[in-house]
Give the backbone structure.
Amino acid sequence: MSENGVIKIKRGFDIKLVGKTNPVIKDLPLSEIVAVKPTDFLEVIPKMLVQTGDEVKAGDHLFYEKDRPELKFTAPVSGEIVEIFRGEKRKILEVRILADKEQKYRDFSAGISQPWTRDSVTGVLLDSGAWNMIRQRPFSTIAKVDDNPKGIFISCFDSAPLAPDLNLVILQNKDAFETGIRVLQAFNVPIHLSLRNNVTGNEVFNSVKGVKIHYFEGPHPAGNVGIQIHHISPIRPGDVIWYLDPQQVVTIGNLFTSGSYKPERIVSLSGSEVKETAYYRTIIGNSYNAILEGNVNEGYNRYILGNVLTGQHVKAEGFIGFYDQQITVIPESSESEFLGWLMPGFNKLSLSRTFFSWLNKNKEYRLNSSQNGEERAFVVTGEYEKVLPMNILPVQLLKAILAKDIEMMEKLGIYEISEEDLALCEFVCTSKMPVQQIVSRGLELMRKEG
Amino acid sequence: MKALRSLVDKIKPNFEKGGKLEKFWVVFDGLETFLFVPKHANHNGVHVRDGIDLKRTMFTVIIAMIPALLFGMWNVGFQHYAAYGETSTLMDNLIFGAIKVLPIIIVSYGVGLGIEFLFAGMRGHSINEGYLVTGMLIPLILPVTVPLWMVAFASAFTVIIGKEVFGGTGFNIMNPALLARAFLFFAFPAYMSGEIWVAMDADKTLVDGFSGATSLVYFDEGLSSMNENISATDMFFGTIKGSIGETSTLAILLGGLYLIYTGVGSWRIMTAVFAGGYLMGLLFNLLAGSAYPAMEVPAHYHLLMGGFAFGAVFMATDPVSAAQTNRGKWMYGLAIGGFTVILRVFNPAYPEAMMLSILFFNVFAPLIDHIVIQRHIKTRMKSAYQ
C-alpha cells in the first residue's frame, strides 16, 4: 500500500458533521473542584492512598492499582481532597479536589537529571503518574513496565468526526513535544510518528529528530493508531506496542523540563449544538461546566466526552478525563419519524446510496443520536469490510468473539484491533449491531485468558 | 402526521404489558414501526448511526424489482394477445397483465405476511422485514397461469420451511423464495412446466403454429432450433415466454444496476455469476460437436435465457444465503454461473438450472467461506513470521 512513503488508506468513511471547531484557543480558568476518575483507566481497581481532608500537591499520589502497585495515580492540581465520590457497590467514581488558588507542585527535579536512561525515566514517569499516559496494544491498557515494546507509536492527526487539529494544538507546545520525544527515546525502541499527508502545519511534527515519520492519506479511521500500527508494523501474537497521543508527549516533556507534573490539555469543543466552538487550554480533571454554560442551543442535547463514534455519553456537568481532548454536543433523538424508511432522505447520511443525500457529497450533517431503525439479526454482508482498512475479516472475527472461540479470535487478529477501529462498522451496520461492545467483550476475554 | 402520531400514542397502552390487547403487541409494534421509525437513541457505543436500516434496504430491493415487474405485466398481456393473433396497445397489454399478476402478488403478500405475524406473535420477536422482498420475488418467478392456491401454498412454504424453521430472517440456509419455487416444481410438475407460460382464453382460437415453448426448450434441441424460433434480441428485451418477471434481461439489469449503485446488492456476486456462465458457455463452444447439441449454443445466450439474469441479480445476491466474505462471493458467483450452464447442457430434465444451481451453492456457501477464512488465516500467519 505504501507508495513514495505515503500509506494510502482506501477503506473508511468521513462522517461530515456541522460544528467544526473554530481555530481559536481560549483559556479555561481552573475550576473550583477538580476530579480524577479511576474509571478512565481500563482494568484499574483503585486502592486509595488519601482520604477526605488531606492536602495534596499536584503530582502527589491519590491511589494505586490493586494488582500493579507500581501504577500510581496522581493529583493534577494541589488542594484539599473534599470527597471520594462513589457509585453502585461503593465503586470509586471520582476523587474530588478543592483546588488551591495558588498551585503548589511536587518537585520531581531530583530524578530528571540527564542522561536519561530507561530506569531513570521510568522511575519519574511512574512516580508522577505520567506513566499512565503510555498505553499498549493489544488491549489498550496501561503499558507494563517490564515489557519490551516493538515500537512507540504516536498518531499526530485525529481523523474522527469533528476531531481537534493536532497540528494547531501542538504548535502551542512545540518545544515541550520535542523534549517529550527525547525522554521517550530513553526506551531505546523505534518511535513512529504518523502524519496526514499534504496538510498545512505538518512542520510541527516532521522537524522532530530521531523518529520515523510516516504519512497517511485517506478517510477515517486513518488517524487511529491501531490502523497505523497495522500498516507499519502489524501486531502478531506475543508482540507489544506502546502508544500515546501528542498532548501526552507534551506533558511528559514539560515534566522533564520543569520538574513538576502539570497535565495540561487543549480540548476542542465541537458539534452542531454548540453556539461558539473553540479550543480550550485546561488541565486534566478540570470541570467542563463553564464551557458549556450558555454556549449550547436550547433543547434536548447529548453531551459526549470524545467524538461521536467512540466518546462517552456524559451529563452537561462533569470533569475532563485523563485521555480526553474533545467534547461534542449533538441533538438527542427525540421524535419518531413518519415513514422514515420510505422518504427520500436528503438529511440522512449513509454510506450506501439508498437516500438521496448522496446527491450532495460535501454536505455537513446535523445528525442526532437516533439509531435510525431497530436492531435486527445480521443480514447485510460486505458493509463492515468497506470501512475497516485492515487485513482482517471483521464479521468473522466478531462471530468468533460471540462464540468465545479464543483460538479463532487470535487467528483472525483480535490483538490488532480495539473498539475504536471498528466503530465505523457499528456506524454503518444495517442491523444496528453493538459492534464496539462485542469487541470489548472479546478483548476482555483475551486479557483474562492471556 | 402529528394527529396520526398522537392516535398511535393513545392506543399504545392497550397493547403494552398488562394492557387489554397485550397479545397483539407484535402486530401493533410491527405496524407502528412501519409507520414511524422509532426514536430509539444509541447507547453504549456510537452516538450517531447511518440512516439505513433493514426496512430501507428491503424497500430498495423492491424498487429494483419494479422494472422487471412492469415489463412482466406487459409481457403477460403481449404474449396473450400474440397467441390469438390479436393486435394490442401498450395499455391493453399492461391492463391484461395487471389483472393476471396483481392477484398473485396480493395472495403472496397476504399469506406470507399473515404467517410472519403469527410466528412473530408466537415467538415474541418483532416482525422482520425480509418478507417484503420475498413476497415480491415469489410472483416474479412463477408462471402467470399458476393457480392462486398454489401461490398461497408457496408463500406459506417459504415462510415456514424456508425461514422460520431456521429461526427467522437472517438464519435461513437457502433462499426462501427459490426453495418454494423448487418445491412447487417437484411437487406439481404439471403446473410448472409445459404449456403454462401464456395466459389462455378457452373461447378463442390460437394462431397457427403457436407454440408455448420457452427459450430453454429450443435450447435443448440445439442451436438450429434456437435460431429458427428465437433471437438473442428477443431474449434480451424479454418479449419471450417465461416466468412473470424473468423474461427481460434488460429490465432485470436495470434493477441490478440500481442495486449496485445504491450499494445494497453485491456487484461481486452479480459479476461473478454472469462471468461464470459466460466462461462455461465459451468452454462448451470449444468442445462442441459431440453428443450434446446444446453445447454449440453461443455463450452469451446462456445469460439471456430462462431465469439466469433474474437469478444472478435478485436470488444469488441474497446476503443471508450467499457467501459472506468478499472473496467467497466471487467463488460462489462463478460456481453458480458455471454450474447452471453445465446443468442446462447435460441434463435436459431440469431446464431451469439456475434455480437448482443457486440452491445448491446456498448450501455450499458456508464451506466456500470456510475455505476463504482458512486461506486468510494462513496468509496472516505467513506475514507474521517472515
